[in-house]
Design goal:
Blueprint (H helix, E strand, L loop, with lengths): L6 H29 L2 H22 L2 H7 L4 H34 L5 H13 L4 H9 L3 H24 L4 H22 L10 H36 L2 H14 L1 H20 L4 H38 L7 H26 L3 H54 L3 H6 L2 H21 L3 H22 L3 H15 L1
Helix pairs in contact: 1-7, 1-11, 1-18, 2-4, 2-5, 2-8, 2-9, 2-10, 3-6, 3-9, 4-5, 4-6, 4-9, 5-8, 7-8, 9-10, 9-14, 10-13, 11-12, 11-13, 12-13, 12-16, 12-17, 13-14, 16-17
């Protein structure tokens, strides 16, 4: 019998896929930033706020509930799929009706039609839910990875073509919808799904009960990461400012987007299968934290160092308002990536209420200070607020994970020692190169060319070559599967 892919193999597959898709989307974004203006990206960012929030609500934590469940799987998946589709229809209709009121509240009547069209995305996103859950629960992440590549490739090509043809803002929104359609088609090809009404009431109640905490925790996180754009637009009164903010937070959070995607896609299903094996969970969690830190910390630090040159020379001076926020969000991104493995531990061990409690406290802190931060310090104020919330979240999450898995906080911090030290050396040298050469494309290229080998050299020296042996063992483990 063919064995299930190992966690290492799955992390490798999903990691490579996410890296490819992020590279594709970010390269497309760079080109689009040359064609479109901050105002177009600002309108798109506001539409994404409502699309992301309502899609997440429509899922209602049902995917996590099904993946965690160990009995009556087929009935649970069919029930969850039906509930998801019904919620999607209701939420899309609600957005259509409330679009004029939302646009008036934000102070931009040009948002009415885009918001109403955005409801289509909410409905289309529900198609293929059944297949996606089955693939994730079966740890079949190669198939899941195909759908991600299809989505981003479709978005990138569609957006670039429509932008070139002069569709401006609409090129971004239509591309987003096209990506969802392509994903649904890919999922149907991988494993055909049907739209059907089938609800087992007792199972539905169990799924909703389990999903409530993941929904609440995730919703608070989404609100924190989305309402800020609405507040920036309403207080500062400019879609162009929102566009610059969107670019800063998008590039700054590439790190958590990549690694949170890996951990939520791979680690939660993997941890769920060994949810009663405390020793196994502890070992896998610490390994995941260690290997994520070796990549996320230097990537975030490096992005912070080159942020000014990247914005001014690659995107152009029209985006200068994004320079300082991008540097700060790069650090926020590091902290976000380091908390992601613990979230999978909370869900897999039935401690989702702890995740909800942590997100609630940080959410309240964020929302109380959001308006003053924007009013007095504009985009930099919001970025600093995110940084403070991320620091608090990291400390809390590390403590809770240590308590659940029965080890000390020092065990987690030891996983970070080498990448932090190596990244600090890399940052000093790269900053020095940038200072000497100035804000030029040649300077940017030189910083990157010098920083990457320097970091790996520092890691090799600090681990006395052990990191190479570990990397070879990981690759060998992945190949055996």
């Amino acid at each position: 019998m063919k064995s299930e892919p190992s966690a290492v193999a799955n992390i490798g597959v999903v990691g490579v896929t996410l890296a490819i898709t992020l590279a594709m989307s970010q390269l497309a974004t760079i080109v689009l930033a040359k064609i479109l203006g901050p105002g177009d990206f600002g309108l798109y960012a506001i539409c994404l706020v409502f699309i992301n929030l309502l899609i997440f609500v429509s899922i209602f934590g049902l995917d996590s509930a099904v993946i965690h469940r160990q009995t009556d799987i087929d009935k649970a998946i069919e029930t969850a799929s039906t509930l998801r589709f019904i919620l999607s229809l209701l939420l899309a209709a609600l957005l259509f009706v409330l679009a004029p009121l939302i646009a008036e509240t934000i102070g931009s009547q040009e948002l009415v039609t885009p918001l109403q069209v955005s409801g289509i995305a909410i409905i289309i996103a529900a198609f293929g839910f059944e297949t996606l859950v089955r693939l994730s629960k079966g740890l079949l992440f190669k198939s899941v990875s195909i759908t991600r590549i299809v989505n981003i490739a479709t978005w990138s090509v569609t957006a670039l073509v429509l932008a070139y043809l002069g569709f401006k803002f609409w090129s971004l929104l239509f591309a987003y919808i096209a990506g969802l359609v392509a994903t649904a088609v890919a999922l149907w090809i991988i494993r055909p799904w049907k739209i059907r009404y089938r609800v087992d009431r007792p199972i539905a109640q169990e799924l909703v009960r389990y999903g409530t905490f993941p929904l609440g925790a995730g919703l608070l996180t989404l609100l924190v990461w989305n309402v800020d754009k609405l507040a920036v637009g309403a207080i500062l009164g400019s879609s162009a400012i929102v566009g610059s903010y969107y670019i800063a937070i998008s590039y700054g959070t590439i790190i958590p987007s990549l690694f949170t995607g890996i951990t939520s896609t791979v680690l939660f299903p993997t941890f769920s299968k060994i949810q009663t094996d405390l020793t196994g969970l502890r070992e896998k969690y610490l390994k995941a934290l260690k290997y994520l830190s070796y990549i996320s910390i230097p990537a975030g630090v490096g992005l912070a160092v080159i942020s000014r040159t990247f914005i001014l020379r690659v995107l152009g001076p029209d985006w200068s308002a994004a320079v300082a926020p991008l540097a700060i969000f790069s650090v926020v991104g590091i902290l976000g990536s380091l908390t992601s493995p613990a979230s999978s531990v909370f869900l897999a061990t039935g401690n989702q209420y702890r995740m909800f409690r942590q997100n609630l406290v940080m959410g309240v802190f964020f929302f109380v200070l959001l308006v003053p931060a924007i009013f007095y310090w504009e985009l930099v104020g919001v970025a600093v607020l995110f940084l403070l919330a991320a620091i608090g979240s990291l400390v809390w999450v590390f403590l809770m994970a240590a308590d659940i898995l029965q080890f000390s906080l020092a065990d987690e911090l030891r996983m970070l020692t080498v990448p932090v030290a190596a990244s600090a050396i890399m940052a000093v040298v790269a900053f020095g190169v940038g200072t000497l050469m100035g804000t030029t494309l040649l300077s940017l290229g030189s910083q990157i060319v010098i920083a990457i080998p320097l970091y790996f050299a520092c890691v090799f020296i600090m681990t006395r070559g052990e990191i190479v042996k570990e990397a070879k063992d990981l690759l060998a483990s992945a190949r055996r599967k």
